[in-house]
Design brief:
This protein has eight helices and seven strands, in the order βαβαβαβαβαβααβα. The protein is an alpha/beta fold. The protein has one domain: 3-Layer(aba) Sandwich (Rossmann fold). It has a seven-stranded parallel beta sheet with strand order 3-2-1-4-5-6-7, with helices on both faces. Helix 4 links the parallel strand 4 and strand 5. Helix 1 crosses helix 7 and helix 4 packs parallel to helix 5. The radius of gyration is 18 Å and the shape is globular. The mean pLDDT is 90.
């Protein structure tokens, strides 16, 4: 198979926040063309991303669709094939959100429904191997492609109403380990980047300025640098993982928490 002249980054959850920052960063010279999926919640951000990537000399093809829905993935991959030549996806980034908050018991009246289990695990965990398999079978990966999942500290620590997210992220970590072996036989690399809280448009919308200030104060106590990580810092780390110097990373849970030393449970867990 002839190697395409241009290579691509496929980002799931691409427009705002971490996914958008990653797309901009990996498009930097010499950079990659960008194809991504988004749910259409941030149309202005999508338009700005296309313009920013074009200014860097690359193409951005953004597709509106639910990339975390197992029933839609084959259609999504078909849309990718309409844009991207075989053997040209150098980077695959799984940056999907869409999870439920609550508790496993109904003592507070917010017990998880089975449909919330299904949606959370599909978005945060199951979609990663589903996409990896579909892209591999479609022969879309470039030689020595890099697959990167994004995770947080919750599957090692505790926060009072995020147990379902923690469970899904633990499953994602296991998927990465196994896929690193199976795709490693084909020359690809699969890793999981773990970082702390980053402020995104979605987080601002959900929490509001008062809660964000409290969150910032908490992280100043947990992290030696005295602040939260930024989406730009996460993006630069993902770009680093595309370079030849990081080829030996495979099946790794990469700690990018900035030396976080205290437990979220101890700082944030509300009293009963």
């Amino acid at each position: 198979m002839t190697r395409p002249a241009r290579q691509w980054a496929l980002v799931l959850g691409v427009t705002a926040g971490t996914g958008g920052s990653i797309a901009r960063e990996v498009a930097r010279d010499p950079g990659l063309d960008i194809i991504g999926f988004h749910r259409g919640n941030f149309p202005d951000e999508a338009a700005r991303l296309i313009a920013d990537v074009a200014a860097l000399g690359h193409r951005a093809a953004l597709i509106r669709g639910d990339a975390g829905d197992p029933a839609r993935i084959s259609d999504c991959v078909a849309e990718v094939r309409n844009v991207v030549p075989q053997g040209s996806i150098k980077l695959f980034v799984h940056s999907l959100s869409g999870a439920s908050l609550g508790h496993f018991l109904d003592d507070r009246g917010d017990a998880f429904h089975p449909k919330q289990f299904e949606k959370t695990f599909n978005n945060l965990a199951h979609s990663f191997p589903y996409w990896a398999r579909a892209l591999h079978e479609a022969q879309l990966f470039a030689p020595e492609a890099r697959l990167v999942g994004l995770t947080n500290v919750l599957h090692h620590q505790m926060l009072h109403n995020l147990g379902l997210i923690a469970a899904a992220k633990a499953a994602l970590e296991s998927y990465v380990r196994y896929l690193s072996v199976e795709l490693g036989r084909h020359g690809h690399r699969v890793n999981l980047l773990q970082f702390g809280t980053v402020v995104t448009p979605a987080l601002r919308r959900v929490m509001g300025p008062g809660a964000l200030a409290r969150l910032d104060e908490i992280h100043a106590r947990m992290i030696p640098a005295g602040r939260m990580c930024t989406v730009e810092e996460v993006a630069r780390m993902v770009r680093l993982l595309t370079m030849d110097e990081t080829t030996w990373f495979n099946g790794a849970l990469i700690d990018f928490t900035g030396g976080m030393t205290q437990h979220l449970f101890d700082l944030v867990m509300p009293p009963d």
